[in-house]
Structures are given as structure tokens and as C-alpha cells.
């Protein structure tokens, strides 16, 4: 991966410390600048200070609810359980569970998209039972 490809796939942030750099000859000190490149993550996608992730649940879990947690980047757990119906591609927002805002106590949000895993096939008996319950 080239430097330009790496920069395109990562978030670049610049932090400036004003007048903390080397002084110019017979002059004022310069600014000290750090460029921070955030690497891609295998479970989370970052957009600003918000994090996005996708969780797969079964069809039964989508219909009757589920208990799940998401392990955050700092290892704390976020409860994403549901007692109701979860639709395929539904997105839920968890306020304050994203990345910390620079120079602030606030955090971005976590957005969880739910993928529903459908069975590949059903037996005739399963079809009959589903029709009896849902039909």
C-alpha cells in the first residue's frame, strides 16, 4: 500500500501546538504540528467522532429480541439488547459511545446496523409451524 493509498483509507488529523516549535533565527518560536493518521479497524468504521459497526442476528432474534453487547475500542461493553422486533438493515444510535472529541469530555455516537441472518431452507414441518404462528 502506497502512502497516498494509506492516507486515503485513514482519517488524518492535525494537532497544532502554537509557538512550541523551534524559534526562527532572531525571531519568534514556530508552531509544532503533529499529523495523526488513524488506521482502519476490522469492526468499526469512523466518521468524524462517530463509530459505525454491523451486527448479525438470527431471524429468531430479530423477531423475539436478543441480549448482546458490543466490545468497544477501550474494552468497555455497550448493551445493544432488544426486547422487540429488529428489522433488517435497522440502525440504532447509542449516544456518547463513539470517539472522544478533541479537547472535550464529550464523545461521538455509536451506530449499529443490524443484519438479519435468514435460514437457507425450511423443512415442510417448519413451514407449517411458521404459517400457524404468523399466518
TrEMBL record:
SUPFAM superfamilies attached to this UniProt entry: HSP40/DnaJ peptide-binding domain
PANTHER family to which the protein is assigned, alphabetical: DNAJ-LIKE-2, ISOFORM A-RELATED (PTHR43888)
Domain Chaperone DnaJ C-terminal, chain residue ranges per copy: 13-119
Annotated GO biological process: protein folding
Coiled-coil region: none
UniProt superkingdom: Eukaryota
Pfam family, one: DnaJ_C
Annotated organism of origin: Malus baccata (Siberian crab apple)
CDD domains for this protein: DnaJ_C
Gene Ontology molecular function, alphabetical: Hsp70 protein binding; unfolded protein binding
InterPro entries reported in the protein's UniProt record: DnaJ_C, DNJA1/2-like, HSP40/DnaJ_pept-bd
Name recorded for this polypeptide: Chaperone DnaJ C-terminal domain-containing protein
